[in-house]
Design goal:
single chain; 186 residues; alpha+beta; Alpha-Beta Plaits; 4 helices; 59% helix; Transl_elong_EF1B/ribsomal_bS6; Pilus assembly protein PilO; transmembrane; membrane
Length: 186
């Protein structure tokens, strides 16, 4: 009798094991296999994301540097044609340096790929040192300017015995084209 109970218990355990391995375990094994495969894929994606993060950090630093450079360029190359303000700045510099501006004449703008050049011809007089300081201070104004076609000759004002220098030159101011700024903002 005891033997029958043991056989019955073993048979019940066997049936339970058979049901487990035939019905319950295979779907769980397939689910486990699917989850392991998904884990492997996610680990690969995580590796790619970490690599991209390394590149992103470098690219972000580079982008920030370029953005700062662009901001400095926008100060040097304003978008608007603020020639009256520029002429006032140059007149103040001339007065501060002791240079007399005899004449200035804006010329036709010259378009370039990213900017427009606005040449302005000047006729000034003063001493050699005053003229040098004047050109130096113009070069240090907070925007991109270029002096060219410099011509120097002696000059004497009427009623004065003192000889000065008369200089003619062209100062080119540059402005950004509007489409350049709009393209950057996109």
């Amino acid at each position: 009798m005891m033997r029958n109970k043991i056989i019955a218990a073993v048979a019940i355990v066997g049936v339970i094991c058979l049901v487990f391995f035939a019905v319950i375990y295979p779907p769980r094994r397939r689910e486990l296999s699917r989850l392991r495969s998904e884990q492997t894929e996610l680990e690969k994606e995580l590796g790619v994301a970490r690599e991209n993060l390394k590149h992103f950090t470098r690219l972000r630093t580079e982008y920030d540097s370029l953005t700062a450079t662009w901001a400095r360029i926008e100060v040097l190359l304003p978008e608007e044609k603020d020639i009256p303000d520029l002429l006032e700045d140059i007149a103040r510099v001339g007065k501060r340096c002791g240079v007399e501006i005899l004449q200035f004449k804006p010329q036709n703008p010259v378009p370039h790929e990213l900017c427009t050049e606005i040449p302005i011809s000047f006729n000034v007089c003063g001493s050699y040192h005053q003229l040098g300081r004047f050109l130096s201070e113009i070069a240090n104004l907070p925007r991109l300017l270029k002096a060219r076609e410099l011509g120097i000759s002696s000059y004497r004002k009427k009623g004065s015995e003192r000889t000065s220098i008369r200089a003619t030159f062209v100062v080119s101011a540059y402005t950004l084209k509007k489409d350049t700024t709009q393209a950057r903002q996109k």
